[in-house]
Amino acid sequence: xxxxxxxxxxxxxxxxxxxxxxxxxxxxxxxxxxxxxxxxxxxxxxxxxxxxxxxxxxxxxxxxxxxxxxxxxxxxxxxxxxxxxxxxxxxxxxxxxxxxxxxxxxxxxxxxxxxxxxxxxxxxxxxxxxxxxxxxxxxxxxxxxxxxxxxxxxxxxxxxxxxxxxxxxxxxxxxxxxxxxxxxxxxxxxxxxxxxxxxxxxxxxxxxxxxxxxxxxxxxxxxxxxxxxxxxxxxxxxxxxxxxxxxxxxxxxxxxxxxxxxxxxxxxxxxxxxxxxxxxxxxxxxxxxxxxxxxxxxxxxxxxxxxxxxxxxxxxxxxxxxxxxxxxxxxxxxxxxxxxxxxxxxxxxxxxxxxxxxxxxxxxxxxxxxxxxxxxxxxxxxxxxxxxxxxxxxxxxxxxxxxxxxxxxxxxxxxxxxxxxxxxxxxxxxxxxxxxxxxxxxxxxxxxxxxxxxxxxxxxxxxxxxxxxxxxxxxxxxxxxxxxxxxxxxxxxxxxxxxxxxxxxxxxxxxxxxxxxxxxxxxxxxxxxxxxxxxxxxxxxxxxxxxxxxxxxxxxxxxxxxxxxxxxxxxxxxxxxxxxxxxxxxxxxxxxxxxxxxxxxxxxxxxxxxxxxxxxxxxxxxxxxxxxxxxxxxxxxxxxxxxxxxxxxxxxxxxxxxxxxxxxxxxxxxxxxxxxxxxxxxxxxxxxxxxxxxxxxxxxxxxxxxxxxxxxxxxxxxxxxxxxxxxxxxxxxxxxxxxxxxxxxxxxxxxxxxxxxxxxxxxxxxxxx
Length: 769
Description:
Radius of gyration: 31 Å
Strand content: 5-15%
């Protein structure tokens, strides 16, 4: 919960009293007072940056503590440093610090423009397309109605404005189109941020709001880019307009088909091929620049290319770990305060002292707010939402925030707006954004979740904490043996059904040999790819209502030796979530082969060890799997159950969860087993089995849960394997300290005696001996 207003103000007073703010701002003010600003000056540019960054950070911190977005504080910082406050109180000092020379202004404007593009990349990356797919009917309805009504209102309002308020009366149509779009779109960044902070991001109404904002932004930037094309000095050219419209359509079609795969491969190539620091961030910036230049070449603004680049980058599997963390810090710390501060500097609130202009601003705020609210609410009702949900959607779609400020800034730079209209739009963006949190809290309080929604929220909460869902990339290391082929098949199934990017290393089958037979590598690639495609088809079929997930991207190459240690070490730094390891010999009796131990320890994190037995040892024909997963209620056991569910789903197989009452790896006398069972909590078995059943239900996998008493866990598991004729047993395990890879007595006995295939999932790094 955000601190109270009084506590936030107290925090700011303490910060100012400590002298930190003065220490941050005084160098720039002293520089301005010295009058050292002859011509374009790099030192003056640094002083301007210092003021904008420091003031934006301080006021952004204050606004966050008051429950508002930080960009509002950065915008207010710009207004305070602009002609409205600083310029009015100390005009001479202000003109020294922010001179009107074009060369000096161009330095700050260049940083601000780059900030616009980078901010749009982040906005695009935050556009979760799965949210749009899951709520597409209501989202499109809300977005279209929520754009149409305020667009018409903004267009008509501009047509009625006196010519004196327009930047160029001869281009009234262009300004009217621009104002219509500017008043009609929402800020997906602000909407997603506030809905998430209120805890409604995964609620149905929250998903509709965010999905509608994503569609709003996409439609808005396409339209704005075309309108900007109309704003060229030479006037409206029908041929240029048609070229821009058709070029935009082709650009979007290619971006979301061929471009999506190209971007994904480029990001992965940069991550895998370069050893220097932050190569993925460099590649993301290159992609942004290329796509921005492409949109500029077809006659629309660069902002569209940056936004679409962000969407495509956001869909790559490496995005979360590299780009989002590394790029966001630079944008948040440098470019956002400069850009929003520059927007504030461009606003002259003193014009609002004129009653006519103040009235125009009030009308603009009313038209934008009422039009958007009614349009979104009507769209929600058409899309099947309840009255309370439609009311919440109408409140949530009213935040303009960063999107409006970006549009207004670009419009001012192109002459579509003058300073008066720019200031009015800026005031509208601030008022609608600042009013959104209390309105959302009030409207969300009226929306009660349905039983189906509660069940979905519980399932999604479980999936979010899932071990499997955190695997972005999968590394498969196998040889040509039956064990290697089974590991390839299981790795492919997992990759396909969860859409995981996968790299396979085919180990040399002959220790000391120089190369791996090409035919065996092809066989591994074939098994892995076919399994991935099969698992992918399962995922697409099951997600027909919510939209198909990402397909797996699989590549296979040969290792130079049978050990594979150097290859695993080289691949590990590229960011893999788990290693699937299948080779022979995997073990000798109850002990893992020393080479397997070294390979697993080399990878260090989650390792999936596969051992082919029974029918899988005799034949590489993989039918739907009949899987047994022993469960105990521990985290590692839950991880094993998650893997078993994914394999059962991808192979269209059957799954049994076995809970052993008073489970122990040690043999007990009969009386000891009865005492252990009697002392166990009454509902433990049922609760553990129910958890696996619910996990399976969320993925469409029926789980048969059983509980058993017996002399030892290993004996009971072995009996169940033979009685149920299972093809595969999946066991979540923890590595024990020591030089040898050891998962406990139960795993050792299964490794020695199990008649059918085994999978051990070690999801916790072990201690090195």
